[in-house]
């Protein structure tokens, strides 16, 4: 399995549960020639969390980070 260099960046969004600022980490890397993305984090105010990942096209909010 060939892993290319990856990038991890901070990402701040508005919590969909309570409206406070939520901090996440977004990452992208290339594995075997395929672009992979992931995001994880959550809201410190209410505890809501988010984890997501995928292959191919990177969602706008992840690429913006």
Kindly state the number of beta strands: 4
Structural class: mainly beta
Roughly how much helix do the residues carry, as a percent range?
Answer: under 10%
Give the spatial strand order of the biggest sheet.
Answer: 1-2-3-4
Radius of gyration based on Cα positions: 13 Å
Proportion of residues in extended strands: over 45%
How do the helices and strands follow one another from N- to C-terminus? EEEEH
Compute the average pLDDT.
86
Instruction: Give the helix tally.
Output: 1
- The parts where pLDDT drops under 50 for at least 5 residues are none
End-to-end C-alpha gap:
26 Å
User: What does the largest sheet look like?
Assistant: 4 strands, antiparallel
**Shape verdict:** elongated
Which features characterize this protein?
mainly beta; 65 residues; 4-stranded antiparallel beta sheet; 1 helix
Characterization of this structure:
There is one protein chain. The chain has one helix and four strands. The protein is mainly beta. The chain starts with 6 loop residues before the first strand and ends with a helix.
């Amino acid at each position: 399995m060939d892993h290319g260099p990856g990038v991890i960046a901070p990402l701040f969004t508005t919590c969909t549960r309570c409206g406070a600022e939520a901090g996440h980490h977004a990452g992208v890397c290339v594995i075997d020639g395929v672009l992979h993305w992931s995001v994880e984090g959550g809201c410190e105010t209410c505890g809501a969390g988010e984890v997501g990942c995928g292959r191919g096209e990177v969602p706008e909010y992840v690429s913006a980070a």
